[in-house]
Amino acid sequence: MDNATATSAAAPTIDPNEAAHFGSLASQWWDPNGSSAMLHKLNPVRLSFIREAIDAHFGSDSRSVRPLAGKRALDAGCGAGLLCEPLARLGAAVCGVDAAPENIAAATAHAEAMGLLAPLPYPSPEGEGAAGTVTYLSGELGTLNLGTFDLVTALEVIEHVTDKAAFISQLAARLAPGGLMILSCPNRTLTSRLLMVEAAERLGQVPRGTHDWNQFATPEELAALAADAGLELGEPKGIAWSPLKGLALSDDLSLNFIVTATKG
Fold first, then answer.
1. From the annotation, which residues make up the binding site?
2. Domains and CATH numbers, the chain
3. What residue stretch is flagged as signal peptide (predicted)?
4. Which of 25-29, 86-90, 97-101, 195-199 has the lowest mean pLDDT?
């Protein structure tokens, strides 16, 4: 490991203010009508992209209900587990990591109620590889001893970290050879500023203070960060909004985009 890689692996990326903001919303995370209502609308759209990407990358049968059986998945910035639980139901042994201990507590309680909580936490060898279960940890991704994963996801997280380059490098370090990474981020455009910050936050669709438009990344910026970390991005897909369809996958990248990444 060279000095630059070692520095990135240990660099702090958690913004305490961001962690406190999202931690304060933990009790409402699983309420589809609460402060995370927009995430509940977004989640099926993201899962559609993820399932297609999994089948394309790993060659799984699109009719299979457990295409991730025998695989390990990491969701970085997992919140209270809205993505982790579906990944577990797809057969993965899932580890969710988040900056806010309150989110991890809410995620753990919900997974336990759903019968999805892993019997033992990472990095215990006995706790790893439990197909169809989730375990949760709070802390800096770069300092947790987690090993590598077949699938790594970080959705709507990059815009909330203090050091994007270090965070992407830490994600890359967790990706196993031949693995698949999926990233999503709001695009820094006039459209995202008007709809995600001005409209959504002012109209109460998203809690005030959730987004800092200046921290959004463009697809070109994310591609450059990924390349520096030894990753190659696929073709981004937009997540757009319309009055008729609501949120849906689109060729329009101006609001939000989701993309695969693999080791080059």
1. 46, 77, 98, 155
2. 3-263 (3.40.50.150)
3. none
4. 195-199
